[in-house]
Write a structure and sequence with these properties.
Number of helices: 5
Helix content: 40-55%
CATH superfamily: HUPs
Structural class: alpha/beta
CATH architecture: 3-Layer(aba) Sandwich
Distance between the termini: 45 Å
CATH topology: Rossmann fold
Strand content: 15-25%
CATH class: Alpha Beta
Number of domains: 1
Largest sheet: 5 strands, parallel
Length: 161
């Protein structure tokens, strides 16, 4: 098995979105899967969490902010690790080779850097979780910086009632 598929996803609750499609494609192509999980630069994104941190900062209680952010990061990492374990067990059931990696920051830069050291990757598949946020997802930038075929996996449409 020399062919590899790169599955890029955003770390979080929905990091396994699109994986069943990638797994079936890998089986049909007799290819392995490299998973690249992009961790957000800022985990705290709810208004309440940001305002709580600002309140503690104004009071000069930086230690509490650090504890709060560390606990949030630990919970986030534990959740992602659980999702990764699920991906690994599903790939083992189908005998598809799987390797997981993580990167921080810019999506296009992370993919480009990953592919630079792994020329054996044949195509890039993007999880539906990546295209949710238009601020971080720029398909033109991806196409400009990445020479491999890119497939953007979308969520199935909800049935009309």
């Amino acid at each position: 098995m020399t062919n590899k598929i790169l599955f890029v996803t955003k770390g979080g609750e929905q990091c396994d979105d699109g994986f069943p499609y990638v797994l079936e494609l890998a089986k049909s192509l007799d290819a392995g899967i490299e998973v690249l999980i992009i961790y957000p630069s800022q985990i705290t994104n709810s208004f309440e969490d940001i305002m709580t941190a600002a309140t503690f900062a104004e009071a000069g209680d930086l230690q509490t902010i650090k504890k709060m952010m560390d606990a949030e990061q630990d919970a986030f990492k534990a959740m992602v690790e659980k999702k990764i374990s699920g991906l690994i067990s599903r790939s083992q059931e189908t005998a598809v080779e799987l390797a997981c990696h993580r990167a921080d920051g810019d999506l296009a830069g992370a993919i480009k850097g990953f592919l630079k050291s792994r020329p054996y990757v044949d195509m890039v598949l993007l999880s539906p979780s990546l295209s949710e946020n238009r601020k971080t997802f720029d398909i033109k930038k991806l196409l400009k910086n990445i020479s491999k075929p890119i497939v953007n996996i979308s969520r199935p449409l909800a049935p009309e009632i």
